[in-house]
Amino acid sequence: MQKRVKTIEETNLLAMEFVKMLKGGETIALIGDLGAGKTAFVRGCLAAMGFEGAVKSPTFTVMNEYDVDFGRIQHVQHLDLYRFTLADEIEAMHLGDLHAPNAIMFVEWPNVLEEELIRPDIEVRIEIEEEGRRIEIAGDRFQLAG
Ligand SMILES: Nc1ncnc2c1ncn2[C@@H]1O[C@H](COP(=O)(O)OP(=O)(O)O)[C@@H](O)[C@H]1O
Ligand SMILES: [Mg+2]
Questions:
Q1: Radius of gyration (Cα) for the chain, nearest Å?
Q2: Nearest atom (ligand 1) to Cα of 132
Q3: CB 126 within 8 Å of CB 36
Q4: Whose CA is nearest to atom 3 of ligand 1?
Q5: How far is the CA of 71 from the centre of ligand 2 (A)?
């Protein structure tokens, strides 16, 4: 599905619909230019899952983790691989070990490396438009009305 959102509030509404579709265990790739709103989308998803604290960009921390209580989902990992230049660095993070059925993982810049170290279940593409953003969500196991 795809949707045009003019404001952060509209992004947050879409995020609310999005998280309802998650079962747990998904890896979600976030694709879009710097400033497209990838982190803002994750922030909206966490708010929709009841997380009340601050959600900061993992640009420098590489990975931020949050505990939530949203159905089967208890943990949310948020990664930003923008600064990664070596496959080894990512492998050293043992991302596979993080992949638990009660967790979901958001990954900004999953494609900085040629190697397919991240295999997303869902892709969220965000494009900046004159007025707002165009958000496209795609994935095999994923359906969203509208
Ligand atoms: N409709 C919208 N959806 C998401 N972000 C928006 C929207 N309109 C404006 N913005 C702004 O765009 C910026 C997106 O920043 P950020 O989420 O950090 O981008 P990225 O993580 O893709 O680099 C934020 O300052 C946000 O307020
Ligand atoms: Mg970001």
A1: 14
A2: 1
A3: yes
A4: 8
A5: 26
**Which pLDDT tens digit goes with each residue over 44-79?**
999 999 999 999 999 888 899 999 999 999 999 999
Q: Is the pTM of this model over 0.85?
A: yes
Sheet of 103-108, strands arranged across = 2-5, 132-138, 122-129, 27-31, 103-108, 73-80, 63-70
Of ligand 1's listed atoms, the one at least distance from the Cα of 42 is 17
Rounded CA-CA distance 20/17 in Å is 5
Of 82, 85, 69, which Cα lies nearest the Cα of 30? 82
Probe residue for ligand 1, chosen from 2, 6, 7, 8 as the CB with the greatest number of ligand atoms within 8 Å? 8
Domain ranges of the chain: 2-132
Q: Which of 27, 12, 43 is nearest to 104 (CA)?
A: 27
Q: Which fold has domain 2-132?
A: Rossmann fold (3.40.50)
Per-residue tokens: 79: 């990664």
Q: For residue 55, give the DSSP letter.
A: -
Which residue carries 């966490």 as its tokens? 46
Contact 37, 6 (CB under 8 A): no
